[in-house]
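hey so u asked for the seq, here:
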Amino acid sequence: MDLTVVSYVIYLLVSIALTVWVARTLSHNGRIFLADVLHGNEKLADAVNHLLVVGFYLVNLGFVALYLNGDDEIGDAREVFEALSTKLGVVLLVLGVMHLGNVYVLNKIRRRGVMEREQLPPVAPTDWIAPSAGA
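ran it, structure tokens below
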């Protein structure tokens, strides 16, 4: 069997497995974060979580498919490992960047919600003080 085809198969199997694992981990652990960002609205958090996972799969699996093409012929086992390390390293970097991008956006949404909550006084004002003339 051609070693190029072997490297493609290994690349696809490992890349798809990594994408599924990262997506499931982010979905499971990100649900709590989303519920906080969305002020405890569990249904909305589940819906947004599901949409994020679908988008994550589409972008990452699309990238994996586009990056499958290799320019060089692979002649021996050493070249298989070199090609796989390059391709899988790039896939891991893309997965990490996607994760950090999601966390960054969600954190900005969360911060805005926290700031909006802090703008309201904790108790309603009951009196006022006139400004002093000396100040």
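Residues 77-119 form the longest helix (43 residues). The two ends are 88 Å apart (CA to CA).
lmk if thats what u needed
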